[in-house]
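Table S5 (text form). Sequence records supplied for joint modeling of the two-component complex.
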Amino acid sequence: MPGNRSSSFLVLCAFALAGCSAESRTAGADLPQTPPTGAQDPRAARYERNAYQVAQGGRYFTWYGCGGCHGSDAAGALNLNGKLWAHGSDLDRVYRFIAEGHGDARYGERIPVEQLWQITAYVRTLPRLKPEKRRRQDVDQVGEAQGDNWTGPVLP
Amino acid sequence: MSDPRTPAVELGKLHVSWADAPGIRGFFTTVDHKRIAARYIVTVVLLLFLAGMLALDMRLQLARPDMERMTPQLYNESFSLHGSTMLFLVSVPVMEAMGIWLVPLMLGQRALAFPRLAAFSYWLYLGGVLMLWVPHAFGITPDLGWFEYPPLSGPAYSPGHRADIWAQMITFTEVAALAASVNIAATVLKMRPPGMTLPRIPLFVWAMFLASLMTIFALPAVMMVTSMLIADRLVSTQFFAAAAGGDPVLFQHLFWWFGHPEVYIIFLPAAGFVSMIVETFSRRTLFGHAAVVLSMLAIAALAFGLWVHHMFAVGLPRLGNDFYTAASMAVALPAGVQIFCWIATLATGRPRFDTPLLWVLAFIVTFVIGGLSGIMTASAPLDQQLTDTYFVVAHFHYVLVGGAMFPLFGAFSYWYPKATGRMLSERWGKISFWMVFGGFNLGFFPMHILGLQGMPRRIYTYGEGMGWGPLNLVASIGSAIAVAGGVLFVANAAWSYFRGRAAGPNPWGGSTLEWAAPSPPPQHNFDAMPVVDSLTPLWTQKRELAVMTGLAVDRREVLVTSVVEAAPEYRQKSPPPSTAPLLAAVAVTILFVGSIFTPWALVWGAVPVAIGLTLWFWPQRERSTTGPLRVRNR
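The corresponding structure-token record, covering 790 residues in total, follows.
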């Protein structure tokens, strides 16, 4: 049954590619460093389907103090675990709201574009992240500088 | 060569009752310890080649400063895969394999105590090999080294499945090693030939016995700790989360509680090889047999009291560091006693410098150097300086390659004629020996100096200004020579398998029972059960080996003897070939692989495992398949 064999080979290849992109780990940005062009920006898969990029987004989420208001026990609209996001859950809208929707924090100017992509990816996976898993990850990162604990240089 | 005292009719029956099914069915059902061990060894040689290529790749990367042919990520994956393969899939399994092959032969037995468990052990080991290397083919490779400390390997910092794959590969190989160890320990205790009292046990059998006991005590710790890691990652337990009351240092304690004894689990069988080879090639009984046995015992006990010397830099209490420094120094005493006994044997015997003995001499030199650098790294103050430098890389390659691989190559050369019926080419054996020995020392000695100069381990490149370039180049050239020598060694084995000179049953004039069997041994090993009257039965019973009769020939039967005196106690049915070990191993594999994705795999995966084990232990009335009632079953 050559047809059967070749189709199972294709399945194997698809699995291989999927495995690659979900698990691959690259240092440094190699995509154009610009905000998303729309809800369907093809660069999204590169961040949102990759475990490493999402995890990096989680770290920056704590570093920039997002967890202060949007922690796992936040109430109402601040809670990102639910599906009810006031400003939309599309890629470009989430990105834009993080960058421009936080008033004086001016994240769009203070956070590099690559990291904003990663944070966006992390935020968009939050509704699928089990609360105990999110707590477990936070517990591991509690020792890292976050928000007010940061003692390094700060951009004006 | 068959024993003339066994009538031809009985011999024919023996062949029938111990034969495997022909062809592919026999391949999957065999419980013959020799076939299983051969399988283990072929797999190990393949992995040795792959991991050796990884090493060569890394040495190429480090040969010059500022090289960019590997990314940091690829380098991390390379050393993790190299280390995990060498430690978990090569060193321990190959020693178990040598035990599975040699112990029954040295005891004059027809089978191990639990033949099906040995088959199960191999299939599960193969599962571990595939667990690590199949994902690697798909680009999912563990990248945190051969010990993956949390929190780095925890859920926050190691997303994806790389760390799970590493942790579950360990579960596979450790269950396989436990299965093999229980088997060997039971065989040594209860299946020695009549007359082989405790003082008459050959040293390799002692070594395998002690290594098996150590395995049984040490390996559950690492299986537990990697399972805890998987639980932390999969179901968000907090074993290693400091902020939630967990303890990341617990991981290190439990890991090294296994990790340090593991070094001796690898080294003790190697010491067994060395003892046997030294005895045969010095042509005299080993000097200080009792002293060597006692030193092995001392090493086996002390090995469990040293693990903290892998953790001096963690920041444990000073008193703890002092105690473990002292304990680490203490292990040098029994190791020294052994080495002096081997040297005394060589000095007072009439040594014959064939390839196996050359490997042993290389072992003595290299292992002593590794032991000296070990004393340096084992002292807490010096270790603060040396830890995580290339000095450590040099040290553990000297003890592992020098202390285990050189004796192993010696053992391959020594028992190859027994296993295949053909001699290895001495000429190519000697050439490959000098290449490996010379290349290894050229490659790894400079790493001591690099380490003292401050070169850290696990870096993918270094700047030209550091001045490490020339020594690294020398190290790379040496490694390449050693790898080429290793390839030549294997090529020699492959060539000799077809073209080698025919070997008689005892080409080296060895003293232990395996040399009384034909080369290669038939499936039932010995036509009649040998009876032993000394430590070196083939040297004391010159004319004809005494044998014991009375074991059945029309079905698989083995002799069980008492623990201390090895007095015959009863005849025991030995299980025939079966697909059950393979099926059970497949079921366990499904459970293990599934449990890195969902905790429910533990629940539903237990069902096929239960079915597999039930099939395995399904009672079978012996005479319904072999005796007069056989007709009914057709």
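Note: The longest helix of chain B spans residues 72-106.
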